[in-house]
Write a structure and sequence with these properties.
The complex is a heterodimer of chains A (653) and B (90). Chain A has 653 residues and is α/β, with parallel strands linked by helices. Chain A is built from 21 helices and 35 strands. The radius of gyration of chain B is 12 Å and the shape is globular.
């Protein structure tokens, strides 16, 4: 049984009565003909999930054609298909007319230098339509794949919405991802068009991306067109065959093509423990419906809100914040370093742009605390009403720090994943917040913790996070997996019939939830999810390195609470000298990303393997953390764990 | 411990964590601003500070973590070597 933290925030009863969740509760109760008070709504949404999703569709009322029923064909999670009779357009819904929001800012984007762009909802829609017409004139059609190496700025928002407006599929990465890693993601998609930012800001420096784009042109033979984002900076004008985004604009009438509910919208990338990153295809209807549910019901977003989520265009939270426009809220973007030009730059931006919902990470909150910054002493954060945190678990004391040093407002530690382009646990406007916990499971999802035998854990006991019913934002498939073999292997091998997510979690009987970390070998360093194979694939190429393994080790004083450790087995008579360590780190930074660089590189005689010959990252991780190695008896070489246990936490590499 | 030791600890940390063997060549002048020349970000500073505290067994005041004290190699050496805890263990 895991001990619970103290209650750190309690909602005002009047505000709770007026939230959108309360309005939906009344709507749903009228439909089903019985009260759905308190937790009854959660129970109904989970057990009668078809009725829940039908009711939510009717209440949220996205623009659509076709039949609202059936809600879902099939009961098997892997093959269930939601709303097969519906046709809709994601961008049309994200940009639908909302009278009170039309002439208010919809996108506010700024960079490190303070350069600022503001687009009203009306202007954003006009630009998206003009760009979509331009893309169509270039020959793009529904189903084509468009990729982007893009900054977190207004151009990228316009490009993504224009792409999805005409029914093409959008996939983006951040500019700091190395060329090899970008190609590993984009090449399997066979994209026809690349959007590429000209340069990117990194802590006061402008990094030119021209060389990167040239390498992508060479490595993506399917490309027919490159369109540049972020005009004029820093590279000289592009060759004549590469227009800037505004040059694509073709003003005129537009009719939003409404496509099937499962029409591919986004392709996101998730790193497994082995092999290259997998491309996860998400459908337009499932993404829209899940995001509407999370934004409207769980986070109570609406036209009065300004949401800033600290992200890049390469993370699913970017797609998540994009959908917030559908509620009429404005999205506030900031490209570049959070601490440039001043250590408090991001907090200042939150204040100056009157952000009401601020999404951040445990690492950023820890950084703020570490430098002794007390935001409430420096800024009057009058409009701020919620802080969301994700990427890794938010420690109990950080909830208290926010209350005492920022403002007494709810802190929603939300968690889900790229795989479901949404959340399993998140906020709840009617519930108190306990330190260390999320107040709610995602409505309509039967989220549980299972013990190793597949039995449901008692409330308060930790287990494997699974979802036991179908939900709309299930991927519609993986790239290059026509028969679904990789899809089933990725999510349905752990326990039969349920979605196994790869997280350890504990749930309480009042809806509270705590995510404890990954249950597999996936790394989560400073909130960035990394597949160990993305690292070892590069390291194993080095002469003198026989094999390697990347693991995550707890490190409470590091931003994010953990650090990356690389174990290497050297060839006979070869020592791991410092020049080689530095060369490995530099290569990982250049070919993968700065997030892939280990804090520690440690030579060991052998890596733990099971008697079946399978390498066990989990055993190595447990040993490096000084924990009991759960599967030690299954190892063929448990004697190798001793050397791994010697890697003292926090020792410099 | 000498000033040169502190300097080397900072260079080694930059090499191990940020510049991977190129720190010495990037820092052409010990007075050069780390922030203005992209040697280190503010987030990186936090990690460097933790390392200095661990290495020299000192506790740095968070209110002192300013550009005036830490924005160059020379400033860091000066601040750390003047720290009462450092002098006690040196």
């Amino acid at each position: 049984m895991i001990a619970r933290g103290p209650v750190v925030w309690t909602p005002d009863p009047a505000a709770a009565r007026n939230c959108r969740l309360a309005a939906f509760r009344a709507f749903a109760a009228a439909r089903v003909g019985r009260p759905l008070d308190g937790d009854d709504l959660d129970t109904w949404a989970r057990t009668e999930w078809r009725d829940f999703w039908t009711a939510f569709l009717a209440w949220a009322d996205p623009l659509r054609d076709g039949a609202d029923s059936p809600a879902c064909n099939g009961d098997e999670i892997a093959t269930a298909r939601f709303f097969p009779g519906l046709r809709l357009n994601y961008a049309e819904n994200v940009l639908r007319e909302i009278p009170e929001a039309e002439d208010r800012p919809a996108v506010i984007a700024a960079d490190e230098t303070g350069a600022r762009v503001e687009l009203t909802r009306r202007e954003l829609r006009r630009r998206v339509i003009a760009t979509a017409r331009g893309l169509r004139r270039l020959g793009l059609v529904p189903g084509d794949r468009v990729v982007a190496v893009a900054n977190h700025d207004a151009d990228t928002i316009v490009a993504a919405l224009a792409t999805t407006a005409l029914g093409a599929t959008w996939s983006s990465v951040a500019p700091d991802l190395g060329t090899e890693a970008v190609l590993a993601r984009f090449a399997p998609l066979a994209p026809r068009l690349l959007f590429a930012s000209r340069g990117t800001q990194q802590h006061g420096r402008v990094v030119d991306l021209e060389e990167r784009v040239s390498a992508l042109r060479a490595g993506l033979p399917s490309l027919e067109q490159v369109v540049r984002l972020g005009r004029g900076e820093p590279a000289p004008p592009a060759p004549g065959d590469e227009p800037d985004l505004p040059a694509l604009a073709d003003e005129g009438d537009w009719s939003w093509p409404r496509l099937p509910f499962d029409h591919p919208l986004f392709i996101l990338f998730s790193s497994g423990t082995t092999g290259p990153p997998k491309g996860i295809v998400h459908g337009a209807g499932g993404t829209l419906l899940e995001h509407l549910k999370e934004h409207l019901l769980h986070e109570d977003l609406g036209p009065a809100d300004r949401l800033l989520f600290q992200t890049t265009a390469g993370w699913m939270m970017w797609n998540w914040q994009l959908s917030a426009l559908a509620t009429g809220a404005a999205i506030v973007l900031r490209e570049g370093s959070v601490s440039f030009p001043e250590p408090d730059s991001l907090w200042r931006f939150v204040y100056e742009e009157r952000v009401s919902v601020f999404g951040t990470s445990p690492a950023f909150l820890r950084y703020t605390e570490e430098i002794g910054l007390v935001p409430r002493d420096r800024f009057v954060l009058e409009r701020l009403r919620v802080i969301q945190s994700t990427g890794s678990a938010l420690a109990e004391e950080q909830f208290e720090w926010v209350r005492d040093s920022v403002k007494p407002i709810p802190v929603h530690s939300i968690s889900g994943g790229t795989d479901i382009v949404g959340c399993f646990v998140l906020g709840h406007p009617e519930r108190s917040v306990r330190a260390g916990e999320s107040p709610s499971l995602s409505l309509g999802l039967d989220v549980r913790a299972l013990d190793p035998a597949g039995t449901r854990c008692a409330p308060g006991d930790a287990g494997e996070l699974v979802c036991a019913n179908p939900f709309p934002s299930l991927p519609v498939g993986l790239v290059n997996d026509p028969d679904g073999v990789r899809f089933r292997r990725a999510y349905f091998e752990g326990f039969p019939e349920v979605w196994t997510h790869g997280d350890h979690a504990v749930f309480f009987d009042d809806g509270g939830a705590r995510i404890l970390g990954r249950s597999d070998g996936i790394l989560n360093v400073r909130g960035v999810r990394i597949g160990p194979a993305e690292i070892t694939r590069i390291v194993d190429r080095f002469e003198g390195v026989r094999e390697s393994m990347a693991i995550e080790q707890r490190a409470p004083r590091e931003p994010g609470g953990s650090r990356l450790v690389l174990l290497v087995v050297m060839a006979e008579n070869v020592a791991l000298e410092r020049p080689l360590v530095l060369k490995i780190k530099k290569t990982l930074r250049d070919e993968a990303s700065p997030n892939h660089v280990p804090a520690v590189v440690h030579a060991v005689a052998a890596l733990p393997v099971t008697r079946n010959g399978k390498r066990s990252e989990r055993a190595a991780r447990d040993a490096a953390n000084g924990d009991i190695v759960a599967n030690e008896s299954a190892l063929a070489n448990p004697e190798c764990l001793g050397a791994i246990r010697e890697i003292a936490p926090e020792r410099p590499g | 411990m000498t000033d040169a030791n502190v300097r080397q600890v900072v260079i080694d940390w930059l090499d191990d964590n940020v510049h991977f063997g190129e720190a010495e060549s990037l820092i052409t002048d010990d007075e050069m601003s780390f922030l203005d020349h992209g040697i280190l970000t503010s987030l990186g500073f936090v990690q460097l500070i933790v390392h200095l505290e661990d290495t020299f067994r000192i506790k740095l005041e968070r209110k002192d973590l300013t550009r005036e004290n830490f924005d160059s190699l020379a400033k860091i050496v000066k601040y750390v070597t003047a720290h009462p805890g450092y002098r006690a263990t040196a």
